[in-house]
Amino acid sequence: MKKSILAAALLSTSLLGACLLVQAADAPWQAIGRAATPAEIKAWDIDVRADFQGLPKGRGSVAQGEQIWENRCAGCHGSFGESNEVFTPIVGGTTDADIKSGHVAALSNGSVPQRTTLMKVARLSTLWDYINRAMPWDAPKSLSADEVYAVTAHILNLGGIVPSDFVLSNDNIADVQKRLPNRNGLVRQPGLWDVKGKADVLNTACMTNCPTEAKQTSSLPDFARNAHGNLAEQNRPLGGVRGTDTTRPAPAARVLAPAAAVVAAAAPVPAKAAAGGDVQQVLNKNGCLACHGVSNKIIGPALRDVAAKYQGRADRAAYLQTKIRSGGAGAWGAMPMPPQSQLKEADMQAIVQWLASGAQ
């Protein structure tokens, strides 16, 4: 009897995927797909290592970086790296003594209440690589290599690490690394039951009276609990745990265990109380509340402020739909809103009608 066999094997993997091989009884092995070309691999291979391997050639001055910063970065991060009510500061908390020692004193003595980027970062390659990959927020990877060097130079100048006439390049970035305030701040966490520098993973000794259930606690001090608006109205689209209602007093004990309790403790306020029926769920699902609070400004304006601004327009529903679909900037400040073309029509209509009726 003629046999027919179908076999699949994962032959190799790369940054772009895998090649699947299929065999039939009456046909030889045949490849589906093709190998990635060097150009395709190079387009994905953009990481920069701690020793600056992978860093592209380029250069940018502090002055050039200041211009780019004001045009594309200051809306979120402030003109001097102080940031706004959403993003943590980039600059601050470091001293000339830190630059000399490579250890940021404020990290250990607690003299600065909020840690900044320049206080924490230990590798300049990390800062360069993150800007190159993820910034600006509304158009990641849109900066050229020279522009990334310039923006990095501007940040370093704001922190007093390089002078105002400095030009950062792939040739001198390793020398600048030697002036990073927290360059010696990395700490190796030893393995459990450390044995001569290696974790003792073969130990068979048994501990007695071990706890059977691990408990994790979390709390915010009263003065900071609602400092940036109600967390329940600022839910991010990713992750299972949602923000707690910080307008309400904190419970006496906040023990988060097990997972079901975490979700229950962090549940958002009821939809009707926060955003008019099921619209709260639509806003959460589409990530709207990552940038807009219902009644407070986050990155973008409060949604109720948007509704109030356009209540006098007879065509407000059509106007709001166009603005949401196409995005834009200028009506509420310099921070642009990306186009929301991914919104399903039903979700769009629910949001628009809610806004047009006053967002109550």
What does this structure look like?
With 360 residues, the protein is of the alpha+beta class. The chain is built from 15 helices and nine strands. A three-stranded antiparallel beta sheet has the order 1-2-3, with no helix packed on it. The chain has a two-stranded antiparallel sheet with strand order 4-5. Helix 2 crosses helix 8, helix 7 packs across helix 8 and helix 14 packs across helix 15. The longest helix is centred in the middle third of the chain and has 14 residues.
Descriptive key words:
10% strand; alpha+beta; 9 strands; 15 helices; single chain; two-stranded antiparallel sheet; globular; three-stranded antiparallel sheet; 360 residues; 32% helix
Strand order of the largest sheet: 1-2-3
Structural class by SSE content:
alpha+beta
Overall mean pLDDT score? 78
> Can you give the helix content as a percent range?
25-40%
Query: What is the subunit organization of this protein?
Result: single chain
Count every helix, treating DSSP H or I runs of 4 or more residues as helices.
Answer: 15
Rg, alpha carbons: 26 Å
Task: Please write the string of helix (H) and strand (E) elements.
Answer: EEEHEHHHHHHHEHEEEEHHHHHH
Strand share of the residues?
A: 5-15%
- Runs with pLDDT <50, length 5+? 1-29, 236-241, 254-277
Distance between the termini: 73 Å
Largest sheet: 3 strands, antiparallel
